[in-house]
Amino acid sequence: MKFSRVFLESIGYELPKRVITSRWIEEQLWPLYQKIHFQIGTLEALTGVKERRWWEPGHINAVEAAKAAKKALAKSDVPIEDIGAVIYCAVCRDNFEPATACHVSSELKVRPDTVIHDITNACLGTMSGIIDVANRIELGQIKAGLVVACEHARDITQILIQRMVEEGTSEYFREAMATMTGGSGAVGILLTDGSYESDKPRLIGGVAMGAPQHFAMCRWGADKRIPARAPQMMETNPIGMLKHGGELIRKVGDAFFNEFNWSREELDKIISHQVAAANRDAIIANLGLTLDKDFSTFPFLGNMGTVSLPVTAAIAEERGILEHGQKVGFIGIGSGLNSMMLGWEW
Known about the structure:
Layout: E1 7-14, E2 18-21, H1 22-28, H2 30-36, H3 42-47, E3 51-54, H4 61-74, E4 83-88, H5 100-108, E5 115-118, H6 125-138, E6 144-151, H7 154-167, H8 170-176, E7 185-192, E8 202-210, E9 218-222, E10 232-236, H9 238-260, E11 269-272, H10 277-287, H11 298-301, H12 308-318, E12 327-334, E13 338-345
Helix pairs in contact: 4-5, 9-10
């Protein structure tokens, strides 16, 4: 995938006010910890996640995503009348139907002929959304488009805390531990054809690959056991995810650097999906990069799913870590397994 006229105009984001520490989660898990002889501090030590944020009960995904989108628009000169597509890409939606993008678009008051729909691709959702909008811009169908998402981790984390305590085994702790890193947030990504302002990051292109034979590595959905133990369940094979996910990322990285004739030394910064320390280290190692090229937010924001990568990029830019003229890579991976790497001239 190569692009010549797609630019990242701005990224807006919303973060919940409520901070949930790993210590607080472990206090809820204390009956389990006593059974399996774990100490408070184990979760942070194993994941590198100190805290994450959760929305309060009653929040609406579309409303928070629209707030993030409005922030992205406020940073730009793009009028709402020029938005030709609104694509909602989170795992978490407000309803089975209609598309959550419809509510977001109502909040934004887009024009009637705007393309409006949802995309789902696990934690790779916003990356897939970027490609959807980028293709429309490259083809000259639209001048600008918004990729939006809102994720919330409160409900599934609380369900699994209860299940972990009831199961009372170290095996179940390992299966559910990844869920304990979950954070919440919303993002709006504004892409344009570059006709509004110069010197914006340009999308060079990307590479996508899948390994669907590993579709069962991480699953989140209704509990289909009989009888059901909870309204929803998440099961993760952390060792399998690291092994097979790492293999896929290595292939994606090799294909990317070959396709775009970038050397690993030329890549100035890499922004990856934010899960935990072990996952970050595996991504960097399998891409053949060094940790000095990485910027991470998972220690204080946790894993916000589809929202993690673009919010991390926005924060990196705010802090001056992403600078004009740099070559920047976005690397994402999601349950499926699917992976994608995008290259930007910042």
